[in-house]
Amino acid sequence: MRLHASCAARADQGLLLLGPPGAGKSDLLLRLLDRGYDLVADDQVELREGRASPPAALAGLLEVRGLGIVRRAFRAEVGVRLVVRLERAERLPMPVRYENLDVPMISVDPLAASAPIVIGLALDGLTGKASFVTGAFG
To answer: Is 81 exposed, middle or buried (0-12, 13-18, 19+ CB in 10 A)?
Structure first.
């Protein structure tokens, strides 16, 4: 299945960035790459059996507003561990699963400076490196 989404990876943990066109997927992806995440796919993601990969024609391409499309190193495939919906986030959300993958889904404001940090904390929560009292993982 092909999704209008972007995908990054931290170690073996893939995350899908979902949102409508212009929501900030590529910009947030760029900030995640700056924090050491790997590029998997920008704009379009192939999803098969819980694994994400870039469509062949877009592999390694990243849209950078104000500059254009650049070629970057990329990972050919990663298992999806987290789905990030780009929208204004609730203060204390209830746990939600993404229906197509049965993985946790969180909401993140893509314009917030803290967005990459929130995503990192979510991945830490999934691996037991962070514990949550309440909210999306509590």
So the answer is: buried
Q: What confidence tens digit (pLDDT) does each residue in 99-137 have?
A: 888 899 999 999 899 999 999 999 998 888 888 887 777
In the numeric block, which tokens belong to residue 60?
């390694």
For residue 74, report the phi and psi dihedrals to the nearest 5 degrees: -145, 160
Q: Is the pLDDT of residue 15 over 80?
A: yes
Options 3.40.50.300, 3.40.50.970, 3.40.800.20, 1.10.760.10; CATH for 2-127 is: 3.40.50.300
DSSP conformational letter for 88: P
Q: Which of 133, 41, 33 is nearest to 92 (CA)?
A: 133
Query: Residue 60: which residues within 8 A CB-CB, separation 6 or more?
Result: 39, 54, 71, 72, 73, 74
pTM for the predicted model, two decimal places? 0.90
Query: Which residue type, as a one-letter code, is found at position 131?
Result: S
Phi, psi (rounded to 5 degrees) for 30: -60, -40
